[in-house]
Amino acid sequence: MEPSPADAQRRSGLRRMRLVALSLLLLAAVVFLATVRLDHDGVWGYVNTAAEAAMVGALADWFAVTALFRHPLGLPVPHTAIIPRRKNEIGRNLQEFVTENFLTEEIARERLEAAHVSDRVGRWLADPANRRTVLVEVVRVARAGLGRLDDDEVRHVVDDLLVPRLAKEPVSPIAGALLEGIVAEQTHHGLVDLALEQLHDWLGENPGTYAQVLGARAPWWSPPWLDDRVIGWSYEQVIAFLRDIHEDPRHPARRALDDLLSRLADDLQHDPDVMARAEALKERLLLHPRTSETALGLWRSFRAALETAMDDEDSYFHTRGDELLEHLGRHLETDPVWRSRMEARLAEAVSFVVNTYGDELAEVISVTVDRWDGRQAAERIELHVGRDLQFIRINGTVVGALAGLVIHAAAQLLS
User: Fold this and answer.
1) Is the separation of the CB atoms in 366 and 90 below 8 Å?
2) Distance (Å, whole) CA 127 – CA 133
3) pLDDT per residue over 190-206, tens digit each?
C-alpha cells in the first residue's frame, strides 16, 4: 500500500480532529476539577455533573474508536484492535456485501438506464473539440500498438504461426460452404454488377486499346479494311453483351455463372479430387518462399500508409473519423431507435460482465485485504475514515454533558 499525494492532507485533517476531541475532553476535566469542591446544590452542581458525564462520554467513545484500530493504551483488552485482527474476515464480508448489493444484474441495468449513457454520449460527440479528443486518443493508442510490432515479430507470426496453421487446416470445406451461402443469398450479384459496370466503362473509354489488342492477333494475310470491320463489329457486340447482362437479372450468362459457382461450392465440399486440388493449391501458395515476404511487404505498406494518415490532420483518416463520430453523436442524440439499440447492447454487455465475472471482480476485495499487513491496514483505513470517526468522540462529549444535566436535574427533583 503505497502512500498517495492526498495522504498528507488526510493525516493533517485527522490530527486536527483528534486535537479538537482531546481539547473537549481536557476542557471537561478542567471544569470538573474546578467545580468539584463548590456547592452542588446550586448551579455548580449542574456544571460539575455535566463535566463529569462529558468526561465519561468522551473516554467511552475514545475507547470505542481506538479499539477499532489498535489496543487502547497498548493493553490487550479483549475485542480491541478489531481491524488488524479480523481484517481477512472483514474483507470477505465486504466482498459478500458488494456482490449481493452492487454486482447484480438488476442494479446494473437500473443504474445504466438512469445514467442515459447514449444521450450523454450523443451530446458529448456533438462538440467538435470532443471528437478531436477521441481521434487524438485513437491515434495515440494506434501509434503505441504499431510501435510494439516490428518486422521481426510480424515475420515470426506469419512464418511460425499463420502459415503452418493454415497449411494444416482444411480450407476447401469452409470455402465451399461459404461459397454455397453466397450463391444461395445472391450476395455475389452486387460484385458481378460492379465488375460489369467497370468493364463496360473501361471498354467505352478505351476503344483504341481494344482495337490494338485484337489487331495484333489478326492473321497476316487479312486486309486492313477487313480487320477494321471485324474489330469494330466485335467491339459493339461486346459492349452490347455487357450491357444486356447488366440490365437483365435473369440473363443466361448470369444463370450460367450461378450454376458454375454452385457446382464449384458442392465440389469443394464433397468431391475428393476437387478438394485435393484446392488443398494442394493452398499449400503451394502458403509454402511459396515469397509468401512471407509478400505478407511482410503488405504489412509495411499498411503501417506506413496508416502512420502517414494519422500524422496529417487533413487526411481522409481524420476527416472520415470526424464524420463518423459526428454521425454517431447526431443519431444517439436525436434518433430514439439508435438510442434504444445502444442502451440494449450496453445493458446486455453489463449484464454479461456482472453475471459472468461479478464474483471474480468482488473477490479482488478479499484477496487484496488478505495481502495487507494488519497494522498497516488499520493505519490506512484510519487515515481515510478516522477524521470522521473523531466526531463520535466529540458527539460523545457533548451528549454526555447533556445527559449529565438531565440526570442531575432528575436527581434534584426526586430529592
Assistant:
1) no
2) 10
3) 888 999 999 989 988 99
In this structure, what DSSP letter does residue 4 have?
Answer: P
Produce one character per residue of 371-381: b if its CB has 16 or more CB atoms within 10 Å, e if not: ebeeeebbbbb
pLDDT in tens, 351-402: 888 888 888 878 887 787 777 777 877 887 888 888 888 999 999 999 999 9
Residue 385 C-alpha cell reads as 475514515
The secondary structure of residue 79, as a DSSP letter, is T
Alpha-carbon 338 to chain mean position = 20
Q: CB under 8 Å to 15, separation ≥6 — which residues?
A: none
Q: What is the pLDDT of residues 164-197, one digit of tens each?
A: 887 788 889 999 999 999 989 988 888 889 999 9
CB 251 within 8 A of CB 244: yes
Distance CA(52)–CA(27), nearest Å, equals 11
Burial pattern 143-172, b for ≥16 Cβ within 10 A else e, equals eeeeeeeeeeebeeebeeeebeeeeeeebb
CA separation for the pair 170, 286 (Å, rounded): 13
